[in-house]
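User: Hi! I have a protein structure encoded as tokens and I'd like to know what sequence might fold into it. I'm fairly new to this, so please keep things simple.
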């Protein structure tokens, strides 16, 4: 059975996974030392929040190029988080294996989603040129 198209960003599997991941980031970063509250904790959380926020913003855009741009920004924020997780591990702030595994899954899903948007752009371009 064919899937119904998403009517709102909350219907997107990629957004759901990103939101779940942000909640995981919050739980993980709660264990960071108090002196990191305005440093690494804030940076990691801000970058993590940017992922589902950019997916949501991209969903609302009509242009495929705009959509792809926001999904690309979300992917960049994921990579920023990847570095912060490496840093937190190297500083001894916690075991990041589970959260990093989910980051890898999310990155793969987001990449597939962005590729689909890009492919649909080409499909629409060829329809419009006929």
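Assistant: Happy to help. Inverse folding works backwards from shape to sequence: for each of the 130 positions I chose a residue that suits the local structure. Here it is:
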């Amino acid at each position: 059975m064919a899937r119904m198209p998403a009517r709102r960003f909350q219907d997107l599997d990629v957004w759901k996974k990103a939101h779940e991941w942000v909640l995981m980031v919050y739980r993980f970063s709660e264990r960071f030392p108090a002196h990191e509250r305005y440093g690494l904790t804030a940076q990691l959380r801000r970058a993590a929040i940017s992922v589902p926020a950019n997916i949501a913003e991209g969903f609302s855009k009509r242009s495929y190029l705009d959509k792809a741009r926001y999904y690309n920004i979300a992917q960049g924020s994921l990579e920023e988080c990847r570095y912060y997780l490496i840093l937190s591990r190297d500083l001894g702030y916690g075991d990041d294996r589970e959260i990093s595994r989910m980051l890898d899954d999310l990155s793969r899903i987001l990449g597939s989603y962005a590729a689909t948007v890009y492919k649909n752009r080409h499909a629409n371009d060829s329809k419009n040129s006929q």
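A useful reference point when you look it over: The helical segments are 13-29, 40-59, 64-90, 97-128. Feel free to ask if any position seems puzzling.
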